[in-house]
Amino acid sequence: MSARDAALLVVGDVVTDVIARHKGPLASGTDTAAAIRTVPGGAGANVACWAAYRGGREVRLLGRVGADAVEWHERELTASGVRPCLVVDPQAPTGTVICLVDTGAAAERTFLTDSGASLRLEPRDWSDALLDGVAWLHLSGYLLFSAPSRALVTAAIASARARGVPVSLDPASAGFLVELGVDRFLALVEGVDVLLPSRDEACLLTGLPDAADAAAKLSRHVPMVVAKQGADGALVARSGTVTAHVPAVPATPRDTTGAGDAFTGAFLAALLTGAAPEEAAGKGCRAGAMAVERVGGRPPGVG
């Protein structure tokens, strides 16, 4: 495939992030001081932006937003080097996520999510022509958490398989996975070539407490599993065996929002330029380290 036919197509969520960075526990029933910013976000959109930042290949994004913020999101995506293919929802507003970030040492975050238009992608929004010139399809796992977007995922995977286009998927949310159910999730990702779970998601999907064991088990169901472990780096597993443990890059976290998306975007960009999975995971770890030192889920110079 020539360079012009090596585009990455990301299908996923585009949302507005309201990030509130506070120190210590929230004070129930009264005020808690916080630094608050509104930035573009969404797991799918973040992955696309990091892939474009780390890539050199064309990156496209299919998502659904409300009329309230479509121009802003298109402008931000274009500024990141992403070609937006946004469907405007006639009824629902753009999704919004409130990210509560504790500014303690771990910079852990809690999400309050109003998916809005983002999970209203449906099969009518999909076209086989979206794969023209595409070398890789990546799906945000958030799409599995509503009936319309689940149907789109099924159609997109079938189209990609028919064209011989590899497919990756990031499970996206351990909390939503519990609601969906493990068996249902594994059935929905049938035909996916690469799964990129977090440590918690890998353990949840297998019922195993150890991330390496979980990644190995998942790789019997999906050809390649790349388990993201934050400060513990990443694991690459194939055919039931962990083939690499990639160390993390040291970082001083300010906001862990989007760190996994940064890893995924950089990993996919590296694969598209011919890197081996282990090398690509190393690039993912470097992007994740860069992401946690920033506020928001996008690369430098964006948002």
Automatic annotation (TrEMBL):
<protein>
    <submittedName>
        <fullName>Sugar kinase</fullName>
    </submittedName>
</protein>
<dbReference type="InterPro" id="IPR002173">
    <property type="entry name" value="Carboh/pur_kinase_PfkB_CS"/>
</dbReference>
<dbReference type="Pfam" id="PF00294">
    <property type="entry name" value="PfkB"/>
</dbReference>
<keyword id="KW-0808">Transferase</keyword>
<comment type="similarity">
    <text>Belongs to the carbohydrate kinase PfkB family.</text>
</comment>
<dbReference type="InterPro" id="IPR029056">
    <property type="entry name" value="Ribokinase-like"/>
</dbReference>
<keyword id="KW-0418">Kinase</keyword>
<dbReference type="InterPro" id="IPR011611">
    <property type="entry name" value="PfkB_dom"/>
</dbReference>
<dbReference type="InterPro" id="IPR052700">
    <property type="entry name" value="Carb_kinase_PfkB-like"/>
</dbReference>
<dbReference type="GO" id="GO:0016301">
    <property type="term" value="F:kinase activity"/>
</dbReference>
<feature type="domain" description="Carbohydrate kinase PfkB">
    <location>
        <begin position="8"/>
        <end position="298"/>
    </location>
</feature>
